[in-house]
Write a structure and sequence with these properties.
Low-confidence stretches: none
CATH topology of one domain: Rossmann fold
Bound molecules: glutamic acid
Structural class: alpha/beta
Number of helices: 13
CATH superfamily of one domain: NAD(P)-binding Rossmann-like Domain
Largest sheet: 7 strands, mixed
Radius of gyration: 21 Å
CATH class of one domain: Alpha Beta
């Protein structure tokens, strides 16, 4: 009897589940494994009461989900965003399981989030949210249980607050519980740029296998946070012409190519890390979403999920898509783009450089021995290349899209681990 499929009103969760079920059934995975892997091991909801700067108290909702710990401790970021819900967090944790599996690192999948609007918070308010959230999830995190990291709107600063709060509660330093920390406080040289380096490496590998010269290639990078900005930087360094970048303040297009270094410096010095006010010769500014429909070779959505959906996917004119964000395409968009013959390098392959880099940081924390940035990158790039190669070859061999191939490779490793470890008596 076929497994009864779980669904959700949340687009990301229903997308993740649908992709999983389709791949699992195509590979003939046993029903009991499908049942086990379609559910999360742990879903925690917490309230986060915070005294705001004006003296009032606001209560925020926070979540931490571990989808699977079959391969190792839960691993995945914590995001601060007004769209955060339990279902979205679960979807992201679910995808982390496949990402870590595909990456070949010893982790399961986890994810966390706080529903808040960071643009409206002062630094102190953000710190209080982070520390209270840390205290609430303290019983459930640990270097061998669940290891959070940065995600949308969180970074090295938040990771220090998390680490410090947990360390104070436990009365001992706990550096290996959080990755993405600053280099001066148990972080790794290379971690901040790691996701972008991985996305760019995957994009360049894709161009290589299809026989396309990066120097004859144009790209548009949607989102200019840590992932988007470093993706643009590394592609630009490889000779790709980045004709457009964007963030919530607009699309910034220049047919002769964006000066990526200058744009990064601009965003870095902006109080909210935005491109607002960026200028260079020949720059044209338009609405944020306009970037999605530009006539470029490669489109790299590097911001939020669901940006390409049934309402707009047919407007895409790019030849190839490399997903830097988690879940930027809905299944309908996936279908539309497939029918237009646009190949897609899937998110949990393309953006796995971040979590692979987190694995390096965790190893260094546990060993108390640090690597140089050269060592870090010299390990990251070959892993990204060989993971890309594995998915590419699998997709050719089995005549499936890269996303389906990546799911099948990833599910196999986790399913084998569940079988080997067994179910409790
Ligand atoms: N948030 C990143 C991701 O979605 C990194 C996760 C991690 O390093 O644990 O992959």
């Amino acid at each position: 009897m076929a497994v009864e499929r779980r669904t959700s009103d949340d687009v990301l969760l229903s997308t993740a589940l649908e992709n999983f079920y389709n791949a699992a059934e195509e590979m003939g995975l046993k029903d009991d494994l499908i049942e086990i892997l379609s559910r999360s091991e742990r879903r925690i909801c917490v309230s986060i009461p915070v005294e705001m700067d004006d003296g009032t108290v606001k209560v925020f909702d926070g979540y931490r989900v571990v989808h699977s710990s079959a391969l190792g401790p839960g691993k995945g970021g914590i995001r601060f965003h007004p769209q955060v819900t339990l279902d979205e967090t679960e979807a992201l944790a679910f995808m982390m399981t496949w990402k870590c599996s595909l990456a070949g690192i010893p982790y399961g999948g986890g994810k966390g989030g706080v529903c808040c609007e960071p643009l409206e918070l002062s630094l102190k308010e953000k710190e209080r949210i982070t520390r209270t959230f840390a205290a609430r999830i303290e019983p459930f995190v640990g270097a061998w249980t669940d290891v959070p990291a940065p995600d949308i709107n969180t970074g090295a600063r938040e990771m220090v607050w998390f680490m410090d709060t947990i360390s104070k509660i436990r009365g001992q330093l706990e550096p290996a519980i959080f990755t993405g920390k600053p280099v001066s406080l148990w972080g790794s040289k290379g971690r901040t740029a790691a996701t972008g380096l991985g996305v760019a490496t995957c994009a360049l590998e894709f161009l290589r296998v299809i026989g396309r010269d990066p120097k004859e290639t144009t790209a548009a990078v949607q989102g200019f946070g840590t992932v988007g900005s470093y993706t643009a930087k590394f592609l630009h360094e490889a000779g790709v012409k980045i004709v457009a970048i964007c963030d919530i303040t607009g699309t910034y297009y220049c047919k002769d190519g964006i000066d990526v270094e200058k744009a990064m410096a601009h965003a870095h010095s902006h109080p909210k890390r935005l491109l607002e006010g960026y200028s260079q010769a020949g720059l044209e500014k338009s609405k944020p979403n306009d970037i999605l429909y530009l006539d470029v070779d490669v489109l790299l959505p590097c911001a939020m999920e669901g940006v390409l959906n049934k309402a707009n996917a047919d407007k895409v004119r790019a030849k190839y898509i490399v997903e830097g964000a988690n879940g930027p395409l809905t299944p309908e968009a996936d279908e539309i783009l497939k029918s237009k013959g646009i190949p897609i390098v899937p998110d949990f392959l393309a953006n796995s450089g971040g979590v692979i880099g987190s694995y390096f940081e965790w190893c260094q924390n546990l060993a108390g021995f640090f690597w140089t940035e050269e060592e870090y990158n010299a390990r990251l790039v070959p892993i990204m290349k060989s993971n890309f190669q594995r998915v590419w070859e699998y997709s050719k061999e089995h005549n499936v899209e890269m996303r389906r191939a990546a799911f099948m490779v990833a599910i196999k490793r986790v399913a084998d681990a569940v079988e080997m470890r067994g179910v409790f008596l």
